[in-house]
TrEMBL record, chain A:
GO terms for cellular component: cytosol; nucleus. Gene3D superfamilies: HPT domain. Residues 42-115 form the HPt domain. The modification Phosphohistidine is found at H83. Keywords: Cytokinin signaling pathway, Cytoplasm, Kinase, Nucleus, Phosphoprotein, Transferase, Two-component regulatory system. It is found in: Cytoplasm, Cytosol; Nucleus. PROSITE patterns: HPT. This is Histidine-containing phosphotransfer protein.
From TrEMBL, chain B:
InterPro entries: CheY-like_superfamily, Sig_transdc_resp-reg_receiver, ST_Response_Regulator. This is Signal transduction response regulator, receiver domain. It comes from the Eukaryota. SMART domains: REC (SM00448). Signal peptide: none annotated. Residues 24-139 form the Response regulatory domain. The lineage of its organism: Eukaryota, Viridiplantae, Streptophyta, Embryophyta, Tracheophyta. One of its GO terms (biological process) is phosphorelay signal transduction system. CDD domains: REC_hyHK_CKI1_RcsC-like. PROSITE patterns: RESPONSE_REGULATORY.
């Protein structure tokens, strides 16, 4: 049936994309763990978690942007957002995002020391 | 954001090796994304995992008489944070294993969490290899399921 074919094709495309990201260092082992958690009982697990992550990180990034506009900077709040962002990006295996968060966190700590 | 969530839709045994009389149960207290991943991991280890995204809902469940073999909680939660929640859980008389999770700087919070009454403190993402020994401590008869095909 056409629909199944399309579903299969989307699945193949998604797999290629994720394989690319794995190779390029955007994703790490944890992502493979997620794929292994997908099964008949949780057939769309990876897609659901990744979608949730995108939505949540958009929201977090807006919050972070807004927090960065405030003067003086509220490092505690920023730290909280970063903590959450790093937690969720680690959980899905978004290796690069996790690294950027750690960097941001380090900047915040340095900034806090100055401020 | 939702509060307490029930079982994962995949109810029923996966019939890996149904020797245990009763499945271990866990409560995960974390943001929706991490919760989803942690619960899926626990389910894959044959643990019945429930989730809430804040401490208040966890206390509510417990005061309604629910009990769990394991509680896993993030250090940062809306409202009461994980550290305080751990202290409150112990004060409430919760005696099961409690594990703290953090997204950043695991060393910083470790001692505080352990002093608050947690049995362990891990950096996210928590792994099966870290959970299995704890599950075995909780139930000496616990066996992790065979890996899926």
């Amino acid at each position: 049936m056409e629909r199944n074919q399309l579903h299969r094709q989307v699945a193949l495309m998604r797999k290629s994309l994720f394989d690319q990201w794995l190779l390029q260092g955007y994703l790490d082992d944890q992502f493979i763990q997620l794929e292994e958690l997908q099964d008949d009982a949780n057939p769309n697990f990876v897609e659901e978690v990744v979608t949730l992550f995108y939505k949540d990180s958009s929201r977090l990034l807006v919050n972070i942007d807004q927090a960065l506009e405030k003067k003086p900077l509220d490092f505690t709040k920023l730290d909280g957002y970063m903590h959450q962002f790093k937690g969720s990006s680690s959980s899905i295996g978004a290796k690069k995002v996790k690294a950027e968060c750690t960097q941001f966190h380090d900047y915040c700590r340095a900034g806090n020391a100055e401020g | 954001m939702e509060g307490a969530t029930g079982n994962n839709g995949g109810k029923g045994e996966h019939s890996k090796q149904g020797d245990s009389v009763r499945k271990l149960t866990a409560l995960v207290m974390d943001d929706p994304i991490c919760q989803r991943v942690e619960r899926a991991l626990l389910m894959s280890l044959d643990v019945e995992a429930h989730g809430v995204d804040n401490a208040h809902d966890a206390f509510k469940l417990l005061s309604e008489g629910r009990s769990f073999d394991l509680i896993i909680l993030c250090s940062i939660l809306p409202g009461i944070n994980g550290f305080m929640a751990t202290r409150m859980l112990r004060a409430m008389g919760v005696q099961c294993k409690i594990l703290g999770l953090c997204g950043l700087t695991v060393e910083q919070g470790r001692q505080a969490f352990l002093d608050a009454g947690a049995d362990g403190y891990y950096e996210k993402p928590i792994k099966a290899a870290q959970l299995i020994p704890i599950l075995k401590e909780i139930d000496p008869n616990y066996q992790p399921p065979n890996s899926r095909a």
